[in-house]
């Protein structure tokens, strides 16, 4: 009985799709169109044009400000909702920096906290329907990862001098292998900003493209065009998780790189 | 490059690069599964190792991301 019902429903979906589908139904929504950069003031995108990217980047900064500065400005002894979230986030990141980067890494806590809050807010704002996801652009994440890369390299040389190059000289390996390992370590060091930036952009972009692909199915299903909403709801829940985890992973990798710079010996 | 054959090559290459995502999935599953196996043996030590878990996952994922990047370059940049 259940099986028969299933087959009848499937046949109805297919038939209604054929009968009621609009023309070019398969391409009703192109999944990559949501990442188009457009000028808000009209005209072409130029260096100083206000685009949707700059708008949503600014909104992310404003949200961080509202949560961390305005939300906790009352300094209540019994914190309210906003202050609780601000304090929990602060403690969470502080503990992470202390655990991963060590005691002397705590000096860099403001930078790491800023990175985490900014990426988290940009990811979450991008999840609002019809908004723009700034972290899906490699241009945005590459700047963030490049800043981390240069900061870490400069800190490493300032703190340890030439000793920072000991990071590439694996002293626990046999002497004959060390030059080969040094080359591999050098390559892996310079690939760091690439993987660091593309991990964030790739995850966010792929997730949002999947949402739009499911939304595009609606055009081809005719009467049953409400069906993809279930799939979209499930993927959306996953995306909320991914938005947090990618911000966390970006931050924790920053801490790991910082630890390497502060204690370069293997 | 232009033409149908070049486009065919792009699409086939992008599809082949997507295999790398599956390989990264195996790697990430391996990390998470082994963490869970260890965590169930000694649950009291598990909480302190979640940071290591995420670092391991991130490194395993990085190479899958590279294959995704290759697919993107083939689709949109070549």
Please describe the topology of this protein.
The complex is a heterodimer of chains A (266) and B (78).
Chain A: H1 2-20, H2 52-70, H3 81-101, H4 109-126, H5 138-160, H6 178-217, H7 228-262
Helix pairs in contact in A: 2-4, 3-4, 3-7, 4-7, 5-6, 5-7, 6-7
Chain B: H1 4-17, H2 19-41, H3 43-46, H4 50-77
Helix pairs in contact in B: 1-4, 2-4
Protein name (chain B): ATP synthase subunit c
InterPro entries (chain B): ATP_synth_F0_csu (IPR000454), ATP_synth_F0_csu_sf (IPR038662), ATPase_proteolipid_c-like_dom (IPR002379), F/V-ATP_Csub_sf (IPR035921)
Keywords (chain B): ATP synthesis, Cell membrane, CF(0), Hydrogen ion transport, Hydrolase, Ion transport, Lipid-binding, Membrane, Transmembrane, Transmembrane helix, Transport
The N- and C-terminal alpha carbons of chain A lie at a distance of: 66 Å
Which quaternary structure do these chains form?
A: heterodimer
User: What's the helix-strand series of chain B?
Assistant: HHHH
Low-pLDDT runs of 5+ residues of chain A are none
Q: What is the H-and-E element order of chain A?
A: HHHHHHH
Label the structural class of chain A. mainly alpha
Number of DSSP E strands of chain B = 0
Question: Ends of chain B: how far apart?
Answer: 8 Å
Apparent shape of chain B = rod-shaped
